[in-house]
Write a structure and sequence with these properties.
Helices cover 44% and strands 9% of the residues. It has five helices and two strands, in the order ααααββα. A two-stranded antiparallel ribbon has the order 1-2. The longest helix has 26 residues. It starts with 9 loop residues before the first helix and ends with a helix.
Length: 140
């Protein structure tokens, strides 16, 4: 008795399941993470929320808040210029953190370290949603 077993390459299998690099599952994970992160960033004008969607890193496994002030907003501390001692530092002037906390607009869920807080609150749910999405791709 002869048995002939034909298999597909791992790349082909991963692609069918949406698991290839920058594939359907990665896109779903990135989008779900970004959608959840929006509720945690400052909302004074909504620019940070909108910048998450237009991130050039889409489908890369990274979620980027694409505004120049995102770092200091995420740290949650007021920054001032080393020479001017003003939050409105001159162009090119180095800034340092002060001990004063920032005030965030849009509710008490918004604040410093938005990604870490979102991940602690929603991380398992995001992983479960992504796993369910991947299973649906396999059955489809």
């Amino acid at each position: 008795m002869n048995i002939k077993l034909e298999t597909k390459s791992l790349q082909t299998i991963y692609k069918k399941l949406g698991l290839e690099d920058k594939g359907k599952v990665q896109l779903f994970l990135d989008k779900t993470t970004a959608d959840n992160l929006k509720k945690y960033v400052s909302k004074k004008t909504g620019t940070q929320e909108r910048s998450i969607l237009i991130s050039p890193q889409c489908k890369s496994g990274e979620v980027v808040i694409n505004v120049p002030y995102a770092h200091f907003q995420a740290e949650g501390k007021v920054m001032i210029g080393t020479k001017s001692h003003s939050p409105w530092a001159k162009l090119g002037e180095k800034k340092i953190y002060t001990g004063k906390a920032l005030t965030y607009h849009g509710g008490n869920i918004r604040g410093a370290h938005p990604f870490e807080r979102m991940k602690a609150d929603k991380g398992q749910s995001i992983l479960n949603q992504t796993a369910n999405y991947a299973r649906r791709l396999d059955n489809g």
